[in-house]
Design brief:
By secondary structure, the chain is mainly alpha-helical. It has helices at about 1-15, 55-85, 110-115, 115-135, 160-190, and strands at about 195, 200. It has a two-stranded antiparallel sheet. Strand 1 and strand 2 form a beta hairpin. The radius of gyration is 20 Å and the shape is globular.
């Protein structure tokens, strides 16, 4: 029970990442952001909550950083959800008492099935990634560039147009995945079956 409270509190606290920065900066008009990556048809510049009203470039960059990071996490979450629902799970046991990975159910039900110490380990691992690994240490080429002069995978061989296109694809895939994992979580609570995913 305590572990569930800790996880719930952590999730609630993470929503603060969506709040605009309170640091006083010089402000710009919305038109300054209409040429940014991710502003595309059919919506164009889309800010229904007015989070960028009188926002500075630093505030926009912070929100973009959060959007990219949440998009990456959502892509992993969506893919992980689909893969485990196909029956593909890790071999072996999740703990020394013999709880197999195969016995852990899918979706939200997994939270109750994973031992508390396992949940704590996952929470600590994610915290370690957040605080020490997933950072732009060297001043990357763009917002969300965590390569830190270490990982390349051929990125530096692309021309500027291709780089921009690939960044836009990642941004759009992240946006779709955020809606996708939210949809899967909601359908799981509603029950029933959906195509490709199967029985919820």
């Amino acid at each position: 029970r305590n572990m569930k409270l800790i996880i719930a509190a952590t999730l609630a606290a993470s929503t603060a990442a969506f709040a605009p920065s309170k640091v006083a900066q010089t402000t710009t008009s919305l038109s300054a952001f209409e040429g940014e990556l991710g502003v595309q048809q059919p919506l164009g510049f889309f800010d229904p909550l007015g989070m960028l009203d009188d926002a500075s470039q630093d505030q926009f960059d912070r929100l973009r950083f959060v959007e990219i990071k949440h998009g990456r996490v959502a892509q992993l979450a969506f893919l992980g959800n689909i893969i485990t629902r196909t029956g593909l799970k890790l071999p072996g046991d999740i703990d020394f008492s013999g709880t197999s990975f195969e016995s852990i159910p899918n979706g939200w039900a997994a939270i109750d099935a994973i031992p508390d110490k396992g949940l704590l380990q996952m929470l600590l691992f994610v915290g370690w990634l957040e605080l020490l690994v997933m950072k732009d240490v060297t001043g990357g080429e763009f917002i969300g560039d965590f390569r830190n002069n270490y990982i390349d995978f051929g990125w530096d061989n692309f021309d500027e147009e291709t780089k921009l296109q690939k960044r836009a694809i990642e941004l759009n895939n992240g946006r779709a995945a955020m809606f996708g994992i939210l949809g899967l979580m909601m359908h799981e609570q509603l029950g029933g079956s959906i195509p490709i995913v199967g029985q919820m």
